[in-house]
Amino acid sequence: MRDRREQAGESMRGGRENCLAYFEDHRAIGFTLIEVLVVLSIIVILMAILLPVLAMARRVGVRTACQSNLHGIGAAIAAYTMDNNFALPTYFADPAITFDTFRIRTDDGRLVNLGVLLTYAGDPRLLYCPSQTDTQSPSIAYDAPANRWRDAGTAGGPRSGGGRGPGEPDNGHSGPRSGVNASYTVRLNNPGDVQAASWNIINFTNKVIYSDFIGVDGWPGRGRFVDQINSPHESRGYNRLFGDSSVIWTDAAPLNGLRPINDVEPSPEELNQYYLLFDVLH
After folding, report:
1. Are residues 241 and 209 in contact, defined by beta-carbon separation less than 8 angstroms?
2. By three-state DSSP, how is residue 187 classified?
3. What are the DSSP calls for 103-135, one per residue?
């Protein structure tokens, strides 16, 4: 009997020792607090490095998509001018707002500005800078609530071919509704600046004709624009389409040197100075 008790005691002691050894081994393979802090510090450093890189990659991607749209517009303009004795698309501006050449269709149904190119451009999204979203600039973003492409209740959706022909109304049954805006502006700020006969591709081969430049940033809205309008590309720079179909990016610094682009609407003279500088920046 005694031998059995001794054996049982030895067995219990052995089990206790094995259990302690098990927990000691598992404690040995765990992480200390210092090790955990080091790992977390490395992760934070990597995130601090990678996040700006990812943000930059996104900005470059949006800029490239914008350039691609302008190249497409340039190709459409080349085709249009060949069919129309080198004339550029019908220019239309709101005289109450210096920079407003966004309109695609007038209230009486005429296609104007970039709207004239719809039969050449195909997808209407080509007329919109991808950095102008329904949160960035609702009034000039594609099919945003404040800038619906079609009238409510009109059958069908957007389709290539914006109308019956340049400047002809289509009674609202295809293409954009009256008053809808693109997000690219025409170079001119006033029809009186250039005679109609001179608004042609020959006279603007080496000059900017369309761009994503607006001339304001954080503009609170006025008139037919009930929402804020912001500068594209985080105000870092702008894409410009020249008459020869080339698309060139420029940094915003030279333009801010003329007059800082802010929420104050530029005068016609200031807007003209911006474009004169645009013509020579590369």
Report:
1. yes
2. coil
3. BSB-TTS-B-GGGGGHHHH-SGGGGS-TT--TT
CA gap 210, 127 in Å, rounded: 11
**Cβ 117 vs Cβ 193: under 8 Å:** no
- Please, are residues 172 and 178 in contact by the beta-carbon 8 Å criterion? yes
The confidence score (pLDDT) of residue 20 equals: 53
Mean pLDDT, consecutive 10-residue segments, the chain of 282 residues? 52 55 55 80 80 77 96 97 94 90 92 95 94 96 93 47 40 72 86 62 94 96 94 96 97 95 94 94 88
Per-domain residue ranges of the chain: 44-278
Residues forming a β-bridge with 131: none
Cα distances (angstroms) measured from residue 252 to each of 11, 128, 160, 208: 83, 20, 34, 16
Tokens linked to 152: 């409510």
Amino acid 160: pLDDT: 38
